[in-house]
Protein: Imidazole glycerol phosphate synthase subunit HisF
Organism: Flavobacterium gillisiae
Amino acid sequence: MLTKRIIPCLDIKNGRTVKGVNFVDLRDAGDPVELAKIYSNEGADELVFLDISATEERRKTLVDLVRKVASTINIPFTVGGGISSVEDVEILLQNGADKVSINSSAVKNPQLINDLAQKFGSQCVVVAIDAKQIEGRWVVHLVGGKVPTELNLFDWAKEVEQRGAGEILFTSMDNDGTKNGFANEALAKLSSLVNIPIIASGGAGNIHHFVDTFKDGKADAALAASVFHFKEIEIKTLKKELKNSNIEVRL
């Protein structure tokens, strides 16, 4: 049985880690390099670094910061934000990223998923999907959740798998930052539709939420930010509790 993964997420704006609620009202959460080191030492399985304003500001990811973070950790490292070409990915991989996460660029140019999977392998390609419910429909949003599309979450998830994505990082915008739990119904449906790992994101508030997303949401990994950044949940404690709930994790 595959172990479930716990993944802290560093949302980066102006070189600092930030965290908001429903993608707005951002507050400072610390130095990304320091946080990365702490999470690596505490037993996080992976780390995600999202340069959340790169797409909106139409610039590339902060490569220097990526290099600094990569040099302090010894766990798999996924980088996203402002990636729109094979060349962008080459630069990030050369500077310490193990995987890349693409979102807006994948929707605007779905062929990019095929190209990246072909060049670097599916294991390197994470497609992030930000979606919120509008009139009972899960609608995919772009540019840090600011731009709604015509795409439906489940149809898009199936397409990205067919194009070669190795994982899907699904963030429920409705749940993000609320600490009311993950969108487990949508996660379970996603899990039944695709055969690649699903990372749950948006809504972690306590340890039970992680238990629920692994059991009810069928998630393969759970990503969280503020509960880790502000020391509301310690990763070691979380993993022990998951183990006690018969969820396989790497201790």
Summary: The mean pLDDT is 92. The radius of gyration is 16 Å. DSSP finds ten helices and twelve strands in the chain. Residues 32-42 form the longest helix (11 residues).
